[in-house]
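Homework help board

Subject: predicted structure for assignment chain

Our instructor gave us this sequence and asked us to write out the predicted structure in token form, then describe one feature. I got the tokens but I'm not sure how to describe them. Can anyone check?
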Amino acid sequence: MAAHNQHFRNYPLLSDSENPQNYEDANFALLWENRHHRNLIGKFFKGNILWSGYQRTQGDYRRGAFVAADHSPLQKNMWYMLTMTWDKRLDHYSLYLNSVLIAKEDQYSPKPFLKEEVGDMLYSGSPAMCYSAFEFYDKALSEQEIIALYPKQTLEKYNTLNDHLQRVFLGKNRPEFTFNIDKEENWDCRLDLGLTNPDDLDHFHQQGDSLSARISNDGLLLETPDVYLEKANLDQQGYLWTEDVFEGDLYLEYEFKILRDGGLSLLMTQASGMNREDFMSDYPRRTSGSMNMVCWEDVRNYHWEYCRDMADVRNDVQCSVLLKNPYLRPLAYGCNPKILERNQWHKLQFLQEDNRIIGAING
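My token output:
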């Protein structure tokens, strides 16, 4: 489809471009994209988010002003109240869906953000959508004002949908992780490492020259360069692969500690090939630190981004996503309003059993 319309994923709501579907040409655009990552977007600069939104101007890092939500599928034949707030002076941006906060601006990049003046004319229109009304305010509405506004704006109440939005984006009524490996009889322990002995590193293959992996007094210490996201440093991530391979159902757990803000931590479980080849033995060992091999190459896996502080996702809360690759198929997404505390131990648990996958942080 992109061969005939490179903007086929874009469903514009408002734009100052005469071609609203081409959001890159707009100084201001509010749109929904048919993808799981950066799904609902409001941006305030010309160009695309990657990489116009991550620039260096005379050596200074400038982050583009945008706010984007993940995993916001819009269901057909339902009315939504979409609200975007913009406080230009404070560089605060937010998105709400049916009065539920679903996105805020990046919390870690330096301000002021890069932004440009909105055009004199705004355009709208998408044949796939029906609009009721646009309302503009001369101030950024507070969350309490938006919550109070929602019942007055909607004639139909979608309780199931709104419960879903509150569970996914606010973390309300989420089930607890009840699996207890100590009470299971049919599981065998295949790998048990304390990560306090230097020889424990022999159980891993290190990928990425920028990754520093060493045994410290507290355990395994992993460090990558402390730099801002930009196109020039995409290969400065790193990965550790277990040399051991595991077949069938899988349960694993470990404790981790976050030492600084920003970045991404993920867990990847590797699938074998169609001929049951061993990924670690039968494929050339990956060396680049680029994330391409996680979800954009010929690697079949599940990958769980369990600690996401990156600049292009919501990082005012703890959010996580589970994907099936190489298809980038989203399987689960959720937010916890409480940020994982820094310099504190947290417990990760991951269960892959039959046709279900469940992950939990601190239960």
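Reply (TA_rk): Your tokens look well-formed. For the description, you could write something like this. The domain at 10-170 is CATH 2.60.120 (Jelly Rolls). That's the kind of observation they're looking for.
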